Amino acid sequence: MSITAILLLISAILQPPPLTSSPATTAYELLAQYNFPEGILPKGITEYELDESSGKFRAYLNDTCSFSLEGSYQLSYEPIISGHISKNRLKDLTGVSVKVLFMWLNIVEVVRDADDLDFSVGIASASFPLDNFFVSPQCGCGLDCDDEFENTSLSLSSM
């Protein structure tokens, strides 16, 4: 065996397993498999990758995405959102930030605790009811995009 062949073999053995995409499942359906509501991601995720053995994931948007929720929280998503996912927990998050007062802070972890989601920015955390995240916000307008969307939200909440 030549030295080149041996180096290629060693390189192949040492490389981590690639992240894989599942064409049959959307990123939103994947969240449900880990006990998260789809609304923690904005509409417009074009694809995702998941290494099932480690839980490492990447989700992709065409561009940055930002919007306000409840008139007080501004959220921003980078074109690539990554981290590790496991049942009831997203950790090591990158690509998601929230504006607190005048500073943008990275959301680094989300934990589902019964009917609440706990969002951590490292130095502090906040808890929100799970039912706030049943619908994915839309880039630019959040949950206040048009009358048709608001009527859909009202009919869903009355069920």
| Main sheet record | 9 strands, antiparallel
Radius of gyration: 19 Å
Q: Specify the overall morphology.
A: globular
**Average predicted local confidence, pLDDT:** 81
> Uncertain regions: pLDDT < 50 for 5+ in a row?
13-18, 20-24, 147-159
Might you state the CATH topology name? at5g01610, DUF538 DOMAIN
How many DSSP helices?
3
Q: Between the first and last Cα atoms, what is the distance in angstroms? A: 68 Å
User: Could you state the order of secondary-structure elements as H and E?
Assistant: HHEEEEEEEEEH
CATH class: Mainly Beta
Share of β-strand residues? 35-45%
Determine the structural class based on helices, strands and strand pairing.
alpha+beta
Helix content: 10-25%
InterPro entries: At5g01610-like, DUF538
Pfam families: DUF538
Organism: Lupinus angustifolius (Narrow-leaved blue lupine)
Protein name: DUF538 domain-containing protein
